[in-house]
Amino acid sequence: MIAVLAGILVYGGVHMIGLTAVHEMKTLVLILLASVTFMAMVTALTTWNSRVGAFFSLILLLLQLASSAGTYPLALTNDFFKSINPWLPMSYSVSGLRQTISMAGNDSGTGCILNCYISHLYGVRRDGVSTWFREE
């Protein structure tokens, strides 16, 4: 619920300063999906281990900011960030938002990939084992 509210506030704040997207509804849905994905990631890590998980969340945020190609082109980063780019959800969020805000609106499966992250991360229990792979 907090993630959805945060996504709506970001979307509303951007509109309040006068910016609009080419595909408004796709942009809103992608913002909400990305917000829930990032909240699921932080929740999974802090549920696993509160202090260590919070530290890993911070490290993961820094890695995503450097490798998502949101601040500068991926071609200008070193090989480490190029190699982790396809594995982090912020990369898909940035490329999807780039498409919905100012291009043709073809998110090319971004929503599907973010949904996979969400479903897996919400399946992680306190012991760090995904409920999908756990024998009951």
Short recap of the structure:
This protein has helices at residues 2-16, 24-48, 50-67, 79-84, 89-102, 110-122.
The count of β-strands is 0
Order of SSEs, N→C?
HHHHHH
Task: Report the C-alpha radius of gyration, rounded.
Answer: 16 Å
Question: What general form does the structure show?
Answer: globular
The termini sit apart by: 29 Å
Report on this model:
This protein is mainly α and 136 residues long. It contains six helices and no strands. Mean pLDDT is 84; it is low at 131-136.
Keywords:
mainly alpha, 136 residues
SSE map:
Layout: H1 2-16, H2 24-48, H3 50-67, H4 79-84, H5 89-102, H6 110-122
